Give the backbone structure.
Amino acid sequence: MMTAVESWIEEPLMTFINDSRVRIAVLLESSGRVLAQHGFTRSIDVMSACALAAAIHASAAEIGRQLDGTPFKTMHHPGRERQIFLGELATGHGAHILLTVFDDATSIGLVRLYFAELSRRLAGAAAATSSAPPTLVDFESDLNRNLAKLFGRI
Amino acid sequence: MTKTPYAELLAMLSRHRGVVGSFVVSERDGLAVDSNVQIGVHAEAVAALAAALHRKARLACGAAGCGVVTFLRLDAEKGGILAAGRDDLVLVTISEARANIGLLRVEMMRAAKALT
Amino acid sequence: MSLVNYAAREITCKIVYYGPGRSGKTSNLHYVYNQVPGDRRGSMVSLATQTDRTLFFDFLPLDLGTISGFTTRLQLYTVPGQVYYATTRKLVLQGADGVVFVADSQRRQIEENVESMQDLHANLAEQGVDARNVPLVIQYNKQDLPRELIMDVSELDDILNFRGVPFHAGDALRGTGVFETLRSISELVLRRLSGAAAPRVAVGQ
């Protein structure tokens, strides 16, 4: 099941997942925050994957800049049973990163093919209307109570 | 660009009447090892999809107890896709309707045996 | 910028622990990791050298539970403190919703503290971020060390806290001040997110 933060992501990403047959797909901001994910069971695990993916992408891009001024945009790690593909997408909301994990149900050729298609679709995705900030009524008491519980103080 | 060992083979296949393009593709990766295609053929897409097709055919034949796939022919409205593989490498041609499929089949199967 | 999913009523905020090398940034996260139940945090990701110096970052995702009807998650990051990891610090700082500056209270580290604070503000400026708008809390760590080796909180505050932000004394190895620091920064971040006016700055202990 796929979960997405914003609606403009859902349909293109679902199409990508169905066509490419990847096991895991995560769309994230370049800062590491998840925008949509498919294949993870715990959202807290997605966050770790995103942090690492953002770091890998940022490092690779920086190496490219240091070499010849052009940041690298995609990366592929082939493993014996699973492979990772990481790619940068230019969307109407800025640059995002797609992390995918796949096995021999598909191939890097197919993943790249459908990634290119996803890129085209998201590049034209309409900007979301900006929302009012969430109303966090009396959040201090919730925050204090929840943190105290987490730290075993109540 | 460095010539691969398959350049002459692909050139030979592409000289056949009605052949629009030919590739050697890695079945596992879906990436073209070498290709000889006419302008307008989306080589990367065809390579990836043809490799996936061959893989499915191989698995289906295996499951059906038919043995190894020797030749794959996909007919479409305006032509077709032909594939013959050995181990991880698959030889693929895209043909128009006027192509001599029988001759291509013989040549591709012979060539596929030599793929390494 | 915090990520808000209105449909699922989820908020995710990124908090970066900044500061000079060996000031206790990673120790803060380790303490949080050890205190919080396993189902409320993810694995701690530590990209470190063989001698446990942070190489790229540490990362710890926390589930804060429901706050004002929103499932709230924090992404806690640390940056490598050593001077030559400047590029890495910039990358990790991108998109931070709040910063905890972990200062090393040792007297001999005062210049490193100042440089690191300047580095933080320079990196924010380079990213086009007005540092005055970024929630910041300072933790004066290692206050447990012998008195003759450290500066006291008020001395440090005079030098480092030119913005008058909340601050806390800390001993991250034993956990003193870690909870309070996290609470302060979470409060500031959520307050900013909800657009509420900032409270008068509370004096740290």
Summary: The mean pLDDT of chain A is 85. Chain A touches chain C at residues 3, 5-7, 29-35, 42-45, 47-48, 51-52, 55, 58-59, 62, 131, 133-140, 142-144, 146-147, 149-153 (CB under 8 Å). Strands of chain A lie at 2-4, 24-29, 34-38, 74-78, 83-91, 94-102.
